[in-house]
User: Fold these one by one.
Assistant:
Number 1:
Amino acid sequence: MEASFSTATTSKGQYPRNNRKWIVFSGRSNVGKSSLINSLLAKKNLARTSSTPGRTQTINFYDVGDRWTFVDLPGYGFARAPLRIREQWGPMIEEFLQVADAVKLALLVVDVRHQPTAQDQLMRDYLREHQRTLEVVATKIDKISRNRRVRHLKTVQETLNVPRVVPYSATRGDGKRELWKIIREV
Ligand code: GTP
Ligand code: MG
């Protein structure tokens, strides 16, 4: 899939104007949003990733093929982020979700190893309110055993109260087909 970086921004005046369908990647810091984007696009370093939470600090837009724009949001829930960053986050995301009519699909990304937090539930409510479709993606499934995976996926699904969860591994590519199918169908 052809993909290229478009824009990095913190305010709506700078969002790209295009006729693409926007697919938004949201979730806690460090769950693997940027890695998920790279994995879907089979690009190693298009979206910047880091083992240190708080890597993505702006809203980053990537044009994908001729139909989509992937939007990589900065993660939330990172207590050690600089105060300035934490204070910016709320208004920046809120503004984005309110004005971005182009968003056709919102992905809520969680780490399969951890029970979704109250902030994840808030984000789910937000995304449901503003976006057409919400899908939950549970990443890092390569990091736990098959048994635990089944149990944890159930916990994620129940805690977020969603009809399904897409299991994903950015390192192995599990879930890639299923997620592309979902993206193509929006
Ligand atoms: P912020 O930008 O801080 O919000 O983080 P992010 O959600 O974009 O996370 P990022 O993609 O930077 O990944 C965080 C860390 O998790 C990196 O060290 C990745 O290599 C690792 N990681 C992400 N996805 C996977 C996965 O599916 N499996 C494994 N084993 N590691 C992963
Ligand atoms: Mg990131």
Number 2:
Amino acid sequence: MSNPVYLALDLPQLDTARALAQKVKAHIGGVKLGLEFFCAHGHHGVHEITHLGLPVFLDLKLHDIPNTVAGAMQAIHVLEPAIVTVHASGGRAMMEDAKAAAANGTKVVAVTMLTSLDERDLERTGVSGNAHDQVMRLAELAELAGLDGIVCSGQEVGAVHKQWKDGFFVVPGLRPAGSATGDQKRVVTPRQARDDGASALVIGRPISRADNPVQAARDIEATL
Ligand code: C5P
């Protein structure tokens, strides 16, 4: 089985991001480039990272009318991303058109509910009910729209996997066992997320901010 770890390159400098990916590339399965990276470095930046030979996950979280999102998907064909994100709350037609416009080898996955939002925030946007139900509802919509999967937390991936057997599930917010937690929050390890059905594991700071990123990536790889 290939390495499911996508290293989040949340670094402002292209050179620093590329150097980090180059250093750890033998111990990761791909890299995740976010909106910030894409806005700063554009296609050129993505090409520079792609040259390293790793699959690229473009975390653009697209959300607009179907025609515009489809146009954006077509505009990134040339980058051959392995994974691209859209917002499930953009609706079924938007997701269908995004998938139809994506390159054949690109998985389109939906962001359900941003982890920066809580139930009070949801309510203020007119959504009643709890966060879990909202995630499950949007996951179902993404499946109906023909997407490949969703982004969800390690806490949710087990439940979502039960509902959507062949979905592709991207899980961020992971902490390797033994890393400082600093509080009593339930920690999900990369291994736990994998066992619960995660297809891709997004890991940033536990590797990028480690004293020895290569060792950190190697240690995570060894647990999987
Ligand atoms: O925390 P870490 O540095 O590993 O985060 C890696 C990536 O996952 C970041 O790009 C961050 O935006 C994303 N993330 C997320 N949801 C979380 C935690 C992190 O989307 N709950």
